Amino acid sequence: MSIMLMALLALPVFAQDETGATSSATTDNTEVVVSQEATQDEIVTEEDLGVTTPGRFHFLKRIQRAVQRAMTTDPIKEAQFDIDEAHEELLTARKIAEENPGDEQASQKAQEAIAKFEQKISDVKDRAQEIKDKKAGQSGTFLEKIADMQIKQQKMLDNLEGKLPEQAFEKVQLARERALEHASEIFTKVAENKEQITERINAAMENQQGSEFKDFKNMEIMERLREHMPDETKAAVEQAQNQARERFEEKIKQSQDSNKEQNAKFEKYMQNIKGDAVGQLKILQDITQGDNVSSQFSAQLEKIREQMPEGIKAELDQKNEKALENLKMRLEDTEIVGPGGENPNAVACTLEYDPVCGSDEKTYSNACHAQRAGVKISYKGECKKDGEQKTQSRQNGPAGQPSNTPSSPNLPPKR
């Protein structure tokens, strides 16, 4: 038995019968790459993920992993197993989509793999509190891993959306939103402080492979994460974005290309890079509002902004107005209301994760933050998703039905 156990633990990687070739390579040799930089910043390889696309001998890997799971009580190692399995599901979905374009049955199988991916990422989230309690000394490294995998997962989901038929878009968008929600909860539960969040997200962005424009894509993905973070930690993500923007601007200034070449290259990049158009517009706006790039490049960014659809601009305006209103409310909460008397809402809430579901169907990291937001608590614990039994809700009073609508715009992928 012990000999068999050791053999399973020592199974070589080639036992999975994998080709090792990255699925992101185009299968159409006649396809012209319009922007090499956009391709560099979108591609995610098996090597990047640290796993290979499951093949016919993948059951051996599953047995090996099951044995390894049984032999560890380390929550970080267990989370890594979940992450690896999640990434294998994404690779499976990508392989199916690329090898069977337009096939409805294959599309359904790809969607099933995406659903399994989301479940595995949820399992990682469920281990966060145990990691905080038992492995606090390794929390920084773990959070950097979470930020790194979030960037790679979002890129893969962006690309998958363009490879699957339109009826599969909702499944991809839901997986994208859930992955961001889970990452937000992990950061909230595990982080020692806001500075650690900034430091680890910035490190993950800086270590990404890609082109001279890679930090633009990184900032756009982190904008998605920022929108899912609790108000008390949004600024930590924004600070990491600021550091990425400084790197982006510095690379633009140091480029050996002429202004004309650089402008043309970035224009092609923006025409081809996939992702959230509203987030991209916000990043462009942030860069043009500064004075750290040449006037020629800034003018090019302004030109790109002007060419974006009016609906995208309007949506960003709405988000900016909402953010301003939230900031105003938070400032009002901290005002002094009388001689020697403080506003009772001016409470300094901690980062402790003891979630409650508010009457607005939003999960707050603890009761304090719900109180500060002026929201009544429906029940303890995270808000339930559609399809889950709301036993706590029935015990504590009625609650509205949560929406399955993603918070990101329901936009088609950029081609």
Question: Topology of this protein?
Answer:
Layout: H1 2-9, H2 36-42, H3 46-49, H4 58-70, H5 75-99, H6 104-126, H7 128-134, H8 139-163, H9 169-190, H10 194-206, H11 214-228, H12 231-254, H13 259-272, H14 277-289, H15 295-307, H16 310-333, E1 336-338, E2 341-342, E3 356-358, E4 363-364, H17 367-372, E5 377-380, H18 391-396
Antiparallel strand pairs: 1-2, 3-4, 3-5
Helix pairs in contact: 2-13, 5-6, 5-8, 6-9, 7-9, 8-9, 8-10, 9-11, 10-12, 11-12, 11-14, 13-15, 14-15, 14-16
Question: How would you portray this structure in words?
Answer:
This protein has 415 residues and is mainly α. Among the domains are: 36-256, no CATH class; 349-381, Wheat Germ Agglutinin (Isolectin 2), domain 1 (2-Layer Sandwich), CATH 3.30.60.30. It has 18 helices and five strands. It has helices spanning 2-9, 36-42, 46-49, 58-70, 75-99, 104-126, 128-134, 139-163, 169-190, 194-206, 214-228, 231-254, 259-272, 277-289, 295-307, 310-333, 367-372, 391-396; strands at 336-338, 341-342, 356-358, 363-364, 377-380. A three-stranded antiparallel sheet has the order 4-3-5. Mean pLDDT is 80; it is low at 1-31, 335-342 and 387-413.
